[in-house]
Amino acid sequence: MSKSDFKTGIIFSAIGKYSNMIINILINAVLARLLTPEEYGIVTIVQVFLVFFDMLADMGFGPAIIQNQTLDDEDTGSIFKFSVIVSFILGLVFALLGQPANNFYDQTVYVPIFIIMGFEIFFYGLMIIPRALLLKRKDFKSVNVLEVVSNILFGIVAIALALLGFSYYSIIIGRLIKVLTMFAFYFSRTKINYRAKLRKEPILKIWAFARNQFMFNFINYFSRNLDNILIGRFMGSSPLAFYNRSYQLSVYPNTILSGVLTPVIQPIMSDYQDQKHVIKDVYLKVIRLLGDIGIAVSVFCFFAARDIILLLSGSQWEASIPVFQILAISIWVQMIASSTGAFYQSANRTDLLLFSGIQSTIFNVIAICYGVYLGTIESVAMMVVISFTINFVINNYLLMYKVFESTYKEVLVALSKPLVMGLIQFLLFFWLPDITSIIFFNLVYKGIIFVIGLLVGVLVTKQFKELKDLVVN
What we know:
There is one protein chain. The protein has helices at about 5-35, 35-60, 60-65, 75-95, 100-105, 110-135, 140-165, 170-190, 200-235, 235-255, 260-270, 275-305, 305-315, 320-330, 330-345, 350-375, 375-405, 410-430, 440-460, 465-470. The radius of gyration is 22 Å and the shape is globular. By secondary structure, the chain is mainly alpha-helical. The longest helix is centred in the middle third of the chain and has 35 residues, at about 200-235. The chain folds into 2 domains: about 1-225, no CATH class; about 235-473, no CATH class. Helix 1 packs antiparallel against helix 11 (about 260-270) and helix 9 (about 200-235) runs parallel beside helix 16 (about 350-375).
C-alpha cells in the first residue's frame, strides 16, 4: 500500500471534511435563527425523498467504477451516456411527485418544491461518473476543494434568500445552486469520451459489483430514513425538525474523523482486494482510532447536549436536547459502522455488504416503527440507538469471520483501551458541575475537561506511542 497516497488522501479529505463541517455549523446556526422549526421540517421531508432519488441516480456505479481496473475510455463514455438517460427520467419523475407528497403529508406546499428539486436530481446524476473518475485517479484535492467551495456558495445563497424572506425556498434554491456548481466543475475536469456509443458491455462489466452496492444503498435508505418519514407523517413537521436537528448534530463527530478516512479507503485499498490480511490490519487500526475518539466524544456530547443545542441553534430548539442526549450514546458506534462499507468494497465483497444492509434494515425498521408507536421523538431515538448497537455487533461478525476469516477477539482487543478512555471521560463529566450560566463559556469549560480526559486516558492506557505510530505510519 502506498503510504504517500493514503496520507495525501487523508490530508485533503480532512481539509474538505473539517472545512465543510465548520461551514455547515455556521450556516445552520444562522439559518436556525432565521427559519422556524416548521419551515425546517418541510425541508427535511423533501430531503428524505431527495436522498432516495440521488441514490437511484448513483445506481452503485460510482464505487463500481473505482473498483474495476479493466474499464477504458470507451467504457466510461458509454456508462456516462447511460447515466444521462437515467438522470433525466428520475428528475422528471421527481418533479411530478409534489402532489402525492401533499396528499401524504396533508400539505399544500410541495408541488413547486419538487419541480425545482427535479433539476437537482438530474444534475446530481450527471456528476456521478466524473466524480468517480477523479477519485479513481486519486485526485482527492480537486474533489474536496470543490465540495468546500460549493458549500460556501450554498451558505451565501441560502442565508441571503432567508434574509429576504424566501422561507424554506432559501435552502431549496441554495441546494440547486450547489449541485449545478459541482456538476460544472466535474464536467470540466474529466475527459469523458462523449462520442462513445451507448453499449451494454461496459455496464455488464461493473454490474455485479454495482448491483450489490445499489441494493445495499436502496435497503440502507429505508433503514436510515424511515424515522424521518414516519415522524413527519404521524407527529408533524415541527417534531420532525427537532428530531432531525438532533440526529444531524450526532453525525458531526462522524464527519470529523471517520468521514475523513472512509472516502480514501476504497480508492487506496482496492489495489489489495486479493490480500485480505492487509485490509484486515488497516480495518483494526481504523476502529482502534475511531474508538479512542468516538467513545470519548459520545460521553462529552451526552453531558454537554444542552450547551451544544442552545449555542448552535438557539432557544427555539430546546426540544431537541433530550433527543440529542439519547443519540449521543451511539455516536461511537456510528463512527465505526460508517467505515465498514468501504472495507466490504475493498475486499470485493459487496454481496456481504448487501446482506449486512438487509439485516440492518430489518432491525432498524422494527425499532423505528415501535418508537413511533410509543408516540415521542425520544422513544424513536432510544430505539434507533438499540438497533444501531445490535447491527454493530452483527456487522463486525460478518467482517471478521466471513471476509477476513478471523475471530471477534481481534475487534474486542482493538476496542478494549478505547472503552477505558470512555470510562475516564464518564467519571470526569459525571461529577462535573456547570460553572456559569453563559452557554459559550460553559461549553468551552467542558471542552477543556474533555481534552484533559483524553490526555489522561492516553496515559492510563499507555497508548501515546501506539497512537503516534498509527497516525505517522
